[in-house]
Write a structure and sequence with these properties.
- With 297 residues, the protein is an alpha+beta fold.
- The protein has 2 domains: 11-37 and 122-296, Multidrug efflux transporter AcrB transmembrane domain (Multidrug efflux transporter AcrB transmembrane fold, Up-down Bundle); 43-119, Alpha-Beta Plaits.
- The chain is 69% helix and 10% strand.
- The protein contains 9 helices and 6 strands; from the N terminus they run H-E-H-E-H-E-E-H-E-H-H-E-H-H-H.
- The strands form 2 sheets. The chain has a 4-stranded antiparallel beta sheet with strand order 3-4-2-5.
- A hairpin with a 5-residue loop joins strand 3 (71-75) and strand 4 (81-86).
- It is elongated, with a radius of gyration of 25 Å.
């Protein structure tokens, strides 16, 4: 007989690891904050057709004078279009001077200036508010669904695990000052769905095994159920990480912006589904049982 993984018995260890990660993440969010990109704080996006492949380092050298931290990416089937994203609201004179530098270096015509777009900070604020509302609504609907399908304590444990995952992802972005743009919103909502799916698999096995254990034998119930679903959880997460890792390694910057938080969220979500959500449910049920026993005595 295979020995079960000790999730409930060693829950203090798993909770301590999570609390340390959350403390580091929250501390960094308070001290460093998030490095919001142009999608949130506004700025200018300039798109130029260079008619030839180019090195982003060469393009960055041309815009150094205007914004040394501007992002430079490429577009077009032949990757001959340069997209310059700066958090600064460039004046008409600065825009013309910037394009003139590219004209001189790449022998361009006026028609090669494809577009100049100004992103308003108010649009970024509206996007942030919409993202917050979407996340809250998603979490509440998940809580209702899990409560209806299982019980409220399952839902409560699952929601706490989801919040755990989101804080850790934001913490990684804060610690390493990775720029936060609109792809993060889609990635965060995807992480919510992936993490809750993994958690439900474990909870479903707990419900299935419940009649096989004593009424208050929650620790053994959780350990057995998690052990039975452990291989499935790890294999699913590993294969998903392989696919997303390939997207990050070979994708364009816009795809990388989406893939990076997904990779962090999948790792965190797998950990919370295995070690946090089920262990937390176990401790809640044990507390309720002890409280009920104390009242009866």
């Amino acid at each position: 007989m295979k020995k079960n993984i000790q999730v409930a018995e060693k829950s203090k260890i798993w909770f301590a690891i999570s609390l340390i990660l959350i403390a580091i993440s929250v501390g960094s969010l308070f001290i460093n904050g998030l490095n919001f990109g142009i999608d949130f704080i506004g700025g200018t996006i300039v798109t130029i057709e260079l008619n030839t492949p180019f090195e982003t380092s060469d393009a960055k050298a041309l815009i150094e004078e205007y914004d040394s931290s501007a992002d430079v990416t490429y577009a077009g089937e032949a990757k001959t279009q340069v997209i310059i994203s700066t958090k600064k609201d460039l004046s008409t004179e600065e825009r013309q001077a910037l394009f003139s530098k590219f004209q001189e270096k790449y022998n361009l015509e006026d028609k090669d200036l494809l577009s100049i777009d100004t992103v308003s900070p108010s649009i970024g604020a509206e996007m942030a508010n919409s993202a917050m509302i979407a996340a809250v609504v998603a979490v509440l609907l998940m809580l209702v669904y899990i409560t209806f399908r299982f019980e409220f304590m399952f839902g409560l444990a699952a929601v706490i695990a989801l919040v755990h995952d989101l804080i850790i992802v934001l913490g990684v972005y804060s610690i390493f000052q990775i720029q936060v743009n609109s792809p993060l919103i889609a990635a965060m909502l995807t992480i919510l769905g992936y993490s809750i799916n993994d958690t439900i698999v474990v909870f479903d096995r707990i419900r299935e095994n419940r009649p096989k254990f004593g009424k208050y034998d929650y620790a053994n119930l959780v350990d057995t159920s998690v052990s039975q679903t452990l291989r499935r959880s790890i294999n699913t997460s590993f294969t998903t990480l392989l696919a997303i890792g390939a997207l990050y390694a070979f994708g364009v910057p816009a795809v990388q912006d989406f893939a990076l938080p997904l990779m962090v969220g999948i790792v965190s979500g797998t950990y919370s589904s295995i070690f946090i959500a089920s262990a937390l449910w176990c401790k809640i049920k044990e507390f309720q049982a002890s409280k009920s026993a104390a009242v009866k005595s």
